[in-house]
Structures are given as structure tokens and as C-alpha cells.
Specification:
Elements (H helix, E strand, L loop, with lengths): L11 H8 L10 H27 L1
Length: 57
């Protein structure tokens, strides 16, 4: 009787292809944090404006 389950670790070529794939380089620096910084600055401006409006009202 034929076995329908194939063990992926039994295929040496597939394992070598998996093991030899380079890991994607993580982007570092301010370019990746720029949207976060802009968003934080916008939130800070809104909070300061809200606090000023509440203080003067």
C-alpha cells in the first residue's frame, strides 16, 4: 500500500533550499520611524491645543 504522507524533512534538496535562503535585512534608521514620529507629534499638538482650549474656556 502506498503512503500518501511525504515527510518534508526527508527531501534534502528542499531542506537545503530552505536553510540557504538569506534572511531579509531589517530596515533600520529614522526612515522607518518617521511615520511614528509624525503621528506622535500630531497627537501632542492636539493634546496641547485641547488643554489650552479647556484652560481658557
Amino acid at each position: 500500500m502506498a503512503e500518501n504522507h511525504t515527510d518534508p524533512s526527508g527531501n534534502t534538496e528542499a531542506f537545503r533550499a530552505f536553510a540557504n535562503t538569506p534572511e531579509p535585512e531589517a530596515a533600520t534608521g529614522t526612515a522607518t520611524r518617521m511615520p511614528l514620529l509624525v503621528g506622535a507629534a500630531a497627537v501632542a499638538v492636539v493634546l496641547v491645543a485641547l488643554a489650552g482650549w479647556l484652560a481658557l474656556a
